[in-house]
Amino acid sequence: MSDLVKLTREGAIGIITIHNPPVNALSPGVPEGIDECIDELTADDSLKAAVMIGSGRTFVAGADIKEFGKITSGQTKRGVAFLPLLLKIEDCPKPVVMAIHGTAFGGGLELAMAGHYRVAVASAQVGQPEVKLGIIPGAAGTQRLPRLAGVAKGLEMCVDGNPVKATQAHELGIVDAIIDGDLLAGAVAFAREAIGKPAPKTRQRNAAGNESVFAAARESARKKYRNMLAPQAAIDAVEAASKLPFDQGCEVEARLFQQCLFSDQSKGMIHVFFGEREIAKVPDIGKDTPVLPVNSVAVIGAGTMGGGIAMNFANAGIPVLLKESDQAALDRGLSVIRKNYDTSAKKGRFTPEQVEQRMALIRPTLTYDGFESVDMVVEAVFEGMALKKQVFGELDKIAKPGAILASNTSTLSIDEIASATSRPESVIGTHFFSPANVMKLLEIVRGRQSGKDVIHTCMQLSKKIGKVGVLVGNCRGFVGNRMFGPYRREAQFLVEEGASVEAVDKALYDWGMAMGPLATGDLAGLDVGWRIRKEYAHLEKPGIRQPIAEDRLCEMGRYGQKTGAGWYEYDENRRAVPDPEVAAMVRQWAADAGIPQREITAEEIVERCVYALVNEGARILEEGFAMRSVDIDMVYVFGYGFPAYRGGPMFYADTVGLNEVYGRVRGLEAQHGELWEPAPLLKRLAEEGKTFRA
Ligand code: 3HC
Ligand code: NAI
Questions:
Q1: Where are the domains positioned within the chain?
Q2: Which fold has domain 297-479?
Q3: Which residue among the candidates 10, 67, 110, 490 is catalytic per the annotation?
Q4: CATH superfamily for domain 5-262
Q5: Residue of 305, 439, 445 with the most ligand 2 atoms within 8 Å of its CB, for mutation
């Protein structure tokens, strides 16, 4: 018998325990073990019913996601097929009670629904999150869930992939009873009651739905999950549940599951699933590295970033001192924070009491009083080395020994900032993204002397405040903005060569980016890049082509959304309207600069912008400013609206094939010059037939 699943006895009740830490995934051996236990249960006359339960922290959290890659690459050995096993459980002549704690997700919920009854502790959650991996339930989840929860709710759960709490699952009919106290004891008692009664089979229930539910779901998924295959496939599968007998519905589901599983989209999303977990692992910082306490924080600067940063800490229950240089700026900053919280409360994300609790955690100040006792300071004053050094010099005198001194700088050297202190080991970059209370990404910038405990603490803290923390090196622009430069440069070149502003944005939006690059510039403020370019102009190599248009727009005061005009014009609702004047001006500037005009396709726009990201990413990787290509991918997926179903820029390049990408980059170099010189790493990996990932 498999070590992963065991049958024990408690009187007439067989207890089937699944033990496959950490999450009892259905790895090879688990279905086989369950299969053997069901045989034994059926054969043993002394057993009248069974309870199936997970050991450790959870019931079954789903199929083993690592196995999917083996299936698509043809490396897997076929074990017990899961769908027939579920039928076998459902057809077992003795009642099987599924006892749920933790998470019954994906194949875990499918397993639970094949039992005759489900009981759960109130803290448990159940769901079909497969769409988040670019697939759909593959073991009758789309067929059984609508039969238990109703078509509308089953559809929603399979399409959005969000779990429901056990109490809601109980109301929906997915769970039969909530167990207070010991789950196993409660489940055994439940099983005793079930002995001798006809055992209900979910698949024999009806799942009728009306046509309009599906049409509306398709329309909504088209917008919400732009370009994504899995949500549409989930709708097709649930529709099959509502129209076809169970067996035929399962056949439809199986076909759609295969299509999704073998798509690049699921490969990309599975890469993101594991990537989000992999980035927490820093090779030279072990789990035993000390984590410093962060029970109180101070933020300096209550502007665009400082206010949002303070909100993150308050949301996590950490008190924040918020320092400004003058009262008017402080009042402005606090009123923006209050407005953001009120908007969230109106949307039902917080109760009014929670808003007040959070506001009460943010203590405004104009002085350094109280800074001597905080565990961490995050500086978010204007971008300028002299000011940052002044602030860190002051902090060095005031902050207690061991306090973390973090800068939110987006471009400046952490090492130079740290040099203004006598404790560079306490200094680190915490680069939040705007709006800081919303965006998931946090680049944690490792200075030359940043302490391992300081880094480890910031990585842990990122989770606590709901961010995805990626450790990056201290180069200009760090990882995200350094790559964003060439990406946006190409977008501007394309406009200067004849593409319209709207065509450039549309091509990348249609390809999957959350926003086009020019519209993104308008959102962030074109003046930010303009100021940076002026500050670093002396570092540019003479004779290299530079974009013209954005600096000219800034010289005209067109900074983007904040001034009502940039690449686009903005109405009072900040809706972008194409501006023919910009189009005419760009044509004139291009003519003055002697840039030939031509027709440009959407494919060329995507290729140039995305390969510019990839080529710069390859340099960053080779120079060691990112630890792995997956770190770069996560920066882009969580901070720059890169489509998760493409896995991130480096993973996307791997999918295309590095030989192909390298060939195109060389072609672009021949056409456009040395800005397109292939990164040495890209060249080497392409020639060796390797990938960034490997
Ligand atoms: N397969 C393989 N490994 C898994 C896994 C799974 N289904 N779920 C979690 N893991 C691994 C994680 O990669 C992580 O590994 P690591 O420690 O080496 O980094 C470890 O288990 C712990 O996971 P988390 O760090 O995520 O732990 P949390 O406690 O924060 O979260 C969880 C637990 C809520 C279960 C979360 O891991 C999760 O959402 N997992 C995925 C669940 C899922 O998507 N299930 C559906 C799978 S597809 C399927 O079932 C298809 C079916 O229809 C046939
Ligand atoms: P901002 O101009 O909106 O806010 C800066 C605030 O700092 C102002 O309110 C100013 O009064 C205050 N300030 C200046 N000197 C101070 C001092 N000595 N003590 C206390 N307060 C002081 O600037 P923003 O956009 O918030 O940027 C702050 C930092 O965050 C910069 O380093 C910037 O590069 C970085 N950043 C900005 C992003 C953005 O999208 N705006 C994104 C990521 C990082």
A1: 5-262, 297-479, 481-624+628-688
A2: Rossmann fold (3.40.50)
A3: 110
A4: 2-enoyl-CoA Hydratase; Chain A, domain 1 (3.90.226.10)
A5: 305
Residue 129 CB–ligand 1 contact under 6 Å: yes
Specify the CATH architecture of the domain 481-624+628-688: Orthogonal Bundle (1.10)
Average pLDDT over the chain, rounded to whole?
96
Residues 6+ apart with CB under 8 A from 208: 151, 242
Catalytic residue check, 130:
yes
Is 353 a residue of the active site?
no
The mean pLDDT value for 107-114 works out to 98
62 touches ligand 1 (CB under 6 Å): yes
Ligand closest to CA 277: 1
Interval 583-601: pLDDT, tens:
999 999 999 999 999 999 9
Name beta bridge partners: 16: 7, 52
309 contacts 332 by C-beta, under 8 angstroms: no
Task: List the catalytic residue out of 90, 130, 324, 490.
Answer: 130
Using a 10 angstrom Cβ sphere, with 0-12 exposed, 13-18 middle and 19 or more buried, the burial of residue 45 is: exposed
pTM reported for the whole predicted model:
0.95
pLDDT digits (tens, 9 = 90+) for 451-470: 999 999 999 999 999 999 99
Please tell me the distance between residue 248's alpha carbon and the centre of ligand 1 in angstroms. 30
When computed from its CA atoms, the radius of gyration of the chain, rounded to whole angstroms, is 28
| Position 78 pLDDT exceeds 70 | no
Identify the nearest ligand to the CA of 367 by its number. Answer: 2
* Residue keyed to tokens 């565990």: 375
pLDDT of 1 strictly over 70: no
